[in-house]
Design goal:
single chain, three-stranded antiparallel β-sheet, mainly beta, rod-shaped
């Protein structure tokens, strides 16, 4: 799952900075969470 975040203006370049989070979850056969991870990321 990707969740959008804040959008900022770059202080010196003519560019936008997009902040977002990536979430990954591994489920067992009963749909219970076995492993989960979340990572914050940024693109310009």
């Amino acid at each position: 799952r990707i969740r959008g975040g804040q959008i900022d203006v770059h202080p010196t370049e003519k560019a936008l900075i997009v902040n977002y989070s990536i979430e990954a979850t591994v489920l067992d056969e009963y749909q219970n969470t076995m492993i989960g991870d979340k990572k914050d990321a940024q693109k310009m």
